[in-house]
Known about the structure:
Layout: H1 32-37, H2 55-65, H3 70-79, H4 112-116, H5 119-148, H6 158-164
Amino acid sequence: xxxxxxxxxxxxxxxxxxxxxxxxxxxxxxxxxxxxxxxxxxxxxxxxxxxxxxxxxxxxxxxxxxxxxxxxxxxxxxxxxxxxxxxxxxxxxxxxxxxxxxxxxxxxxxxxxxxxxxxxxxxxxxxxxxxxxxxxxxxxxxxxxxxxxxxxxxxxxxxxxxxxxxxxxxxxxxxxxxxxxxxxxxx
Length: 187
């Protein structure tokens, strides 16, 4: 029987002071020198990539062989396993084909000699002169055409139409509700 006011005693005897509770892990803990001197390196496993089956090609070949029923197609698919072709997607672990470059191509270098002699300014000035000559010739041709033919009455947008033809002014009408129309007034 338990003593009055005291909990019951356990029936188990505890292990000695050398006992470790939990699971003991054997690890090397030599501090910084151990960490720098002995790296735990993991070797990469070769990644085998299985491509999906190419049912379109297998179906086309099955029809060419004379398969007509679903059972014949299933048997053909079982014995002729054709996989989709890799679209050339480079993944980690694959070898890069020779002669391939990634990224945008760099711009060709500007000839420094042309920059020093203001060649680009001269080219721009020549293009501006040619542009003004063409504009002058076009203006002359338009002026001659307008002299030969009178200007046509081209209908503009709604704003120009309303300027030339203003809408009629509405007469002001005093509106009365219908119930007040038949009111008797003594004369």
